[in-house]
Amino acid sequence: MQKEKDKAKENFEEYRIDLRQKDAPKEFYNILGDIGQDLPKPIDDTGESFALLQKVLPKGVLELEFSDKDHIPIPEEIRDKFKMVNRPTPIIRARQLEAHFGNKVKIYMKMEGFTYVGSHKINSSIPQAYYAKADGAKFVTTETGAGQWGSAVALAASLFGLESKIFMVKVSYAGKPYRRYLMNMFGGEVHPSPSELTGFGRGILRKEPDSPGSLGMAITDAVEYAKEHGGKYVVGSVVNSDLMFKSIAGLEAKKQMESIGEDPDYVIGCVGGGSNYAGLAYPFLEEELKAGKIRRRYIAAGSAEIPKMTKGKYEYDYPDTGKVLPQLKMYTVGHDFVPPPIYAGGLRYHAVAPSLSLLMSKGIVEARDYDQNESFRYAKLYSKIEGYVPAPETSHSFPIIEEIAKKAGSKKPVVLMSFSGNGMLDLANYAEAFGFDAAQKGAGKQ
Ligand SMILES: *Cc1c(COP(=O)(O)O)cnc(C)c1O
């Protein structure tokens, strides 16, 4: 009888797990002091890159970059802006996907696509815009690939009354206009990179006028422009401070999972530079690192076309093509690696954040790489059965669930995944990958 009741309860459980805005986390989590080993120090081999960073990064961000304090109070104004852009995001139980995997796993999605910009990237652009303003800046600069980070910066800057100058990788600028228009709607100013506005960009364009650009080049453009014109540069992934800001997602998720009496056995997500995954996973890792015993499994996936996760070397490398930034010890395929044109623009970065790399090297975080075809199959399936279109980047996490489901025993493992973004502005990419237009023509002929 009780069993039947439990079963009925299970069937009528809710899909969405909310967190009230008044219960939102009030501190960020910084993992650096808990890893039990210092992060290998950045190397300034030009003798100029530290000075450069001191000039272009907001003071508040620089301080956090080297802090090993575990809990960092979130200033009131940042918490207010988080609420404004739709945080806390809900967790959704993906019951149809569970059914697809034979009900062998419970699947919870932390829905970062529900923020107004459609991804987790607003979690860091808001704090950075806040610290840039506190530092007296009038504008911020940054780089963007597909435009997720750029749109998050454009909105955050406007919310704090700042201008934004966004250097967008040239192929994306030309080929993916919709996020560019979104940046424009949010008040951002967008320039193709390599850019005529910087000495670095002009140098590249002189040698190679048709350069398609790359994220590494766009970083150099954005840093140089901030330096020359007195703005502040904001960083979209990889660095410690950025990962700290992104922890808001995991801190919320912990409260949400606790509120329904669930504890994830697996925490999974996709990796561009690593902040999306770290943002969800680090707050869960905290208690385990502090207790000296890892009990959950942490699995992060990149793109097999840029196989830094599984084939990268753990060594010092430049975070940018222009080599103006200090070298960091990271899993990397090389700062001059030219990635093939994949649709998950946010995964094209050549290296993994230093703290995540360190956790990978210690075996605490497991690495996977999946190719586009394998990942996109799930993007389409998820859209069809769950009714929500994932970003191409996000879809690279689904094969991890398949792996877990295949190995699952009688006790259903609980999986928590970072659903890093929404794919509504990536439909053209999906259309190309799946050949929707050709299929449509074929249908017309019949
Ligand atoms: C940027 C992006 C990623 C990758 O994020 P990192 O923090 O660089 O690892 C993943 N998903 C979406 C939707 C993104 O926009």
Short recap of the structure:
This protein has 446 residues and is of the alpha/beta class. 44% of the residues lie in helices and 16% in strands.
Topology of this protein?
Elements (H helix, E strand, L loop, with lengths): L1 H10 L4 E2 L9 E3 L19 H8 L2 H7 L5 E3 L2 H9 L6 E3 L1 H6 L5 E6 L10 H13 L4 E6 L3 H12 L3 E7 H6 L1 H9 L3 E5 L5 H9 L7 H15 L2 E2 L6 H7 L1 H12 L6 E5 L4 H17 L5 E7 L4 H4 L1 E5 L10 E5 L21 H8 L3 E6 L1 H15 L11 H10 L6 E6 L7 H8 L1 H10 L1
Parallel strand pairs: 5-15, 6-7, 6-9, 7-8, 10-11, 10-15, 11-14
Antiparallel strand pairs: 1-4, 2-3, 4-5, 12-13
Helix pairs in contact: 3-12, 4-6, 6-7, 6-12, 7-9, 12-14, 13-14
This protein binds pyridoxal-5'-phosphate (PLP).
InterPro entries: Trp_synth_b-like (IPR006316), Trp_synth_beta/beta-like (IPR023026), TrpB-like_PALP (IPR001926), TrpB-like_PALP_sf (IPR036052)
Keywords: Amino-acid biosynthesis, Aromatic amino acid biosynthesis, Lyase, Pyridoxal phosphate, Tryptophan biosynthesis
Subunit structure: Tetramer of two alpha and two beta chains.
